[in-house]
Amino acid sequence: MTEEYSESTIKVLEGTEGVRLRPAMYIGDIGTRGLHHLVYEVIDNSIDEAMAGRCSKVDVTIYEDGSISIKDDGAGVPADIHPIYGVPTLELILTKLHSGGKFEKKAYQVSGGLHGIGLAAVCALSSYFKIESFRNGMVYSQEYAMGKKVNDVSKNVSDEPSGTLIHFKPDETIFTDIVFDFNTLANRFRELAFLTSFFTINFIDKRKLKSKRRSREDLVIQGVVSNKEEKSVSFYYERGLLDFIDHLAKDKGDIVGGNSIFYTKKEHDGVIVEISFKYTEAYNETILGYVNNINTHEGGTHISGFRTVLTRRMNKFGETYNLFGKNNKSLNGNDIREGISAIISVKVPNPQFEGQTKTKLGNSEVDGIVQHAIKEPLDDFLALNQKLGKAIIEKALAARRAREAAKRARDKERQKSKGRFALPGKLKRSRETDPKKRELFIVEGQSAGGTAVEGRDSGYQEVLFMRGKVLNVEKSRVDKALQNNEINNIITAVGTDYLDDFKINKVRYGKIILLTDADVDGQHIATLLFTFFYRYLRPLIEHGLLYIARPPLYKVNIIGSEAKVFFKNLYGNTTYLQKENDRINLLKKAEEKGIDKTKFTFNRFKGLGEMNADQLKETAMDPNTRNIERVTIEDALESEEWLIKLMGDDVSARKKFIKQGVFDEDDSAKGEFYKNAFTVSENPIN
Fold it and tell me: Mind telling me the catalytic residues?
């Protein structure tokens, strides 16, 4: 029976108790994303020190016991008795939320992270936490466990230079996983080093890892030094965003030689604007936005301001040199941005965030500030690089011709259907009339599609057949992409249109689920589909509507009740395994328990078509038993880099990345691609 609601039921959470009670409110989630967010909160303090001119480097070390330390050479954390609260300031910062030096903008003009919460949240969510602050020839130390102090602040003489050392181990009773991923952290550190010129980040991993694991990380991170005891990498970029652009555009080709990189840095009304871009031979735009070093993958006013001024000044350049021909028709922004790789970094004293994941800048004044900052420098850049400017216009004109040809073809199809697109014949529709309740399964192959149709719930589940591999849109302009029947069918079925004409309110489904084989060929098809959705229908990912099904690799028949103890999900005497490593671990555990391996018989599925309708329904389609995962864009830079590698010109390299990065049968069906380019949910979603 529910307790009576009275005065006694009202509780006040002291200190950081609320953080431990509702950790996801402060760090996003309690999976791997939240785990790594702890590190970002600490290192953000070091970056804030660097932006204030008080810090030049930070050393990050992961230890064998799973703990991690972050040490910088900044000013150190104030530690003496606070004049108002009467306790050591060091202790105040770690035990009281909304305490810190970043509110009045005296010590820090701009900063990232959770103001007054970040370090306290890390302390609260750690089973072990130690801080050492080096200031004025003294070292102040204190230890904590689960947010509670273990001892008082100690004060001793020290000859070490100023700085702060944080050493902590995440609380395994809070997090679903407490193993730090080298690759995930290294990518964020590299990004921060690009955004903070003349700042060094040294990263050492002292854990003894498998050689195969190390090789997969080296696929992404260049400069990693490895031996049997540890591996390390350092990031330092004197040219900042210029080095960032070189890195971002290195595999895309130059449209002309010479000085092809634009760069400017301006300050206006307290907002610092730093922008760099380069045009390449690619057909897609890559624009990364940052606010106080936070990756704003949903965009915002800094991005809209950049796009507006770029379109206006490039059109002005084209008109000045009569590059538009007799019609003198201006180019639209989408055409002008074809092939651009750009970084827009702004430092805003009081940023206001909005959007699905609070990564969209909402400050309206920043739009105009960005336009003002870039207008004259861009005009000067084009005047000095006329050959480049003309090549950009020529590329944009070709993009416009392709776009208009694609539009004419789409309009022709619409006219045939009396103003609306006819749904594709390969789409098996449902009876549901509410789009939010409908689900679309995009299924690889005619045979698998037939099985999915038989196994679905026709009340609300729809199936779209895919014949063969979808076109690699990374290497194609929009007109060629829309000539592909599979792509056209997806766009029509989803109902939103694409690119600049995308309309989220027209979406026909609450879930769009990619259903491909569990083997490497199926994962290759999935990456092609990911690329298409990312480039043409990206808001579907940002709104959390895209999912991937995880069909099993093995069907297991179990003989005898003693062998059933290893499984949570059983269908009579049958269960399913997702990957090869699951089968190996099962047999090892059975041997340890003295259970004969003949108690298990394994049937490996070569494809979805080998499953019957009931099996596919149980494992991939029925909300009560299926395993599907939501796809999100955790890091726009990672998404861009992986798509370029996976979909690029180098065929042998592409196959290597797909085999080792996307799918690793001996280890996990979810490789680095799914962990970094597109982050999937930690747990199955129904």
Answer: 444, 517, 519, 521
SS3 string, 450-463, reads HHHHHHCCCCCEEE
3-state secondary structure of 408: helix
Which of 455, 523, 565 shows the shortest CA–CA distance to 662?
A: 523
> 576, 555 in Cβ contact below 8 A?
yes
Bridge partners, 603 (sequence order): 555
Tokens 């005065």, residue located: 7
- Give the separation between CA 143 and CA 686, rounded to whole angstroms: 42
Amino acid in position 68? I
- pLDDT, one tens digit per residue, over 355-373 is 655 678 999 999 999 999 9
Contact in structure between 416 and 497 (CB atoms under 8 Å): no
Tell me the CATH number of domain 17-235, given options 3.40.50.1240, 3.40.50.10800, 3.30.9.10, 3.30.565.10.
Answer: 3.30.565.10
d(CA 254, CA 276): 15
Q: Is 388 exposed, middle or buried (0-12, 13-18, 19+ CB in 10 A)?
A: buried
Q: Where are the alpha helices (DSSP H) in 362-482?
A: 365-384, 386-416, 446-455, 478-481
Statement: residue 105 has pLDDT above 90: no
CATH topology of domain 427-551+626-680: Rossmann fold (3.40.50)
Q: What is the CATH number of domain 241-404?
A: 3.30.230.10
In terms of DSSP H, where are the helices of 537-631? Answer: 538-542, 580-592, 613-616
Is residue 376 helix, strand or coil? helix
The whole-model pTM stands at 0.79
